[in-house]
């Protein structure tokens, strides 16, 4: 049944609102407005779909929403910040699986989807859409499951490099494309089953060669795949809103992956092709090199004294700040220093924390002014003039091994040049703890470094007291 004109216009409006939402989200200052646009757009799309479709009754849909929403609510309340990346991967797997199920539902019940021709066969164009939707959905599903297992530590984070993997991957992909084409001439169940199975396998093969340290890029790439899966299903369901939304998620996820690849100095092609051209060296989760080199321990009083005397202070927040929820206390400290005439700036690495924009969100929550927050490439040259580099819960993003140690899992990732600052304060809980990539950090042992060992929030509270 073709949709009434008003419904098409409503979908168009929600599509425009989604575009405005993405535009709003491109800057912290407009991100709240962007979120509101997105919420209104989604409300319009959902209400329009409910009113114009009669596949299920409203109570049935309400029950499904209550069950899914209830599970989502409980998970969101319980989830620890540390488990966020694997939760996101798990959610992407569900989007992929939903696309596969919708595609199969359309195959088994084409009449309900309006894709049955009078001769009793499925419209060939719909068969291509169905094949693509199922393929992208299945790749997203199995790829996300592997990403989940790696991130949750239920599977080794190290890359698993199969011999001849590029040929196997390219061959499997070519076979999926060929079968999708063949599906237009032969709609038998064996063809769709083969497409589904091969796609599950290729999703698995694409993600196993990717090491733990590159997982942030993989998660955003899978986010992009889930968008394309939704867009392909939008074609099967003849739903304009789904096509627009899926394409927006797909393209913005791809752009985010590209930005993160640049931030980590990884090849974009390498990541989407599943470790294509990746260094076969170890990656992710390597044991911490326990060093017996000497290091200096500082106190909150030492830090307060030197911070107050400084002219330029650059604060580098990382994952530990999120764990300690130290952002509000940190802003208080920054404000106190500014009152003393110190020039305070916050430096954010694109992969600091455990999700894209993690540090931006926390600093915004603590009302740190946006004009004091700088990205890596905008501030890195300023460390040479900085009196103090104040590292709070960051580790990998300041690790010079990324610049010099070819065997390091973070080799090649641009990092902050904190070693150029006159004094470095490094807040972490113990010398034994390591960052996400699990490697030792030369900054701990530098002449100008003072380790401030303790919980980030408590340490900053003590510094504030001393100030
Ligand atoms: P990091 O390398 O994971 O280091 C976190 C540091 O915080 C550690 O030194 C840890 O040492 C310390 N810490 C933890 N809890 C603390 C607390 N309560 N108080 C004080 N310190 C605490 O963090 P990062 O520098 O932000 O780097 C992020 C890493 O995560 C990168 O390797 C990145 O690739 C990866 N990653 C990023 C994303 C993303 O999208 N942003 C997603 C997944 C993975 P102690 O244990 O000794 O305290």
Strand order of the largest sheet: 3-2-1-4-5-6
Give the uncertain stretches in residue-range form: 277-289
- Overall mean pLDDT stands at 89
Q: Which compounds are bound in this model?
A: NADP nicotinamide-adenine-dinucleotide phosphate
Structural class: alpha/beta
Overall spatial form: elongated
Task: Tell me the β content.
Answer: 5-15%
Task: Please tag this protein with its features.
about 475 residues; alpha/beta; Rossmann fold; 17 helices
3D structure, described in words:
- This protein has 467 residues and is of the alpha/beta class.
- The protein has three domains: 1-78; 84-273, no CATH class; 293-466, TPP-binding domain (Rossmann fold, 3-Layer(aba) Sandwich), CATH 3.40.50.
- 56% of the residues lie in helices and 7% in strands.
- It is built from 17 helices and six strands.
- The protein has helices spanning 5-25, 31-52, 58-78, 84-108, 124-151, 165-183, 189-207, 215-236, 240-263, 268-272, 300-309, 319-324, 327-339, 358-365, 376-379, 401-404, 456-466; strands at 312-317, 343-348, 373-375, 388-392, 423-428, 449-453.
- The protein has a six-stranded parallel sheet.
- Helix 16 (401-404) links the parallel strand 4 and strand 5.
- Helix 1 runs antiparallel to helix 2 (31-52), helix 5 runs antiparallel to helix 8 and helix 13 (327-339) packs parallel to helix 17.
- The longest helix is centred in the first third of the chain and has 28 residues, at 124-151.
- Mean pLDDT is 89; it is low at 277-289.
- Residues 85, 213, 215-216, 318-320, 323-324, 351-356, 358, 393-397, 427-430, 433, 435-437, 455-456 line the site of NADP nicotinamide-adenine-dinucleotide phosphate.
